[in-house]
Amino acid sequence: MTTITRTEFRLALRSPGNLFWPVAFPAILLTILGLIPSFREPNPDLGGARVIDLYVPVTILLSVIMSGLQALPPVLSAYREQKVLRRYATTPARPFGLLMAQFAVQAATVVAGAVLVLLVGRLGFDAQLPGAPGPYLLVFAMALVATFGIGGLIAGTAASTKTATTVGSVAFIASMFTAGVWFPVAAMPDPLRDVVTFTPLGAAAQAMDSAATGQWPELLPVLVLTGWAVTATALAVRWFRWE
Question: What is this structure's pTM?
Answer without folding.
Answer: 0.95
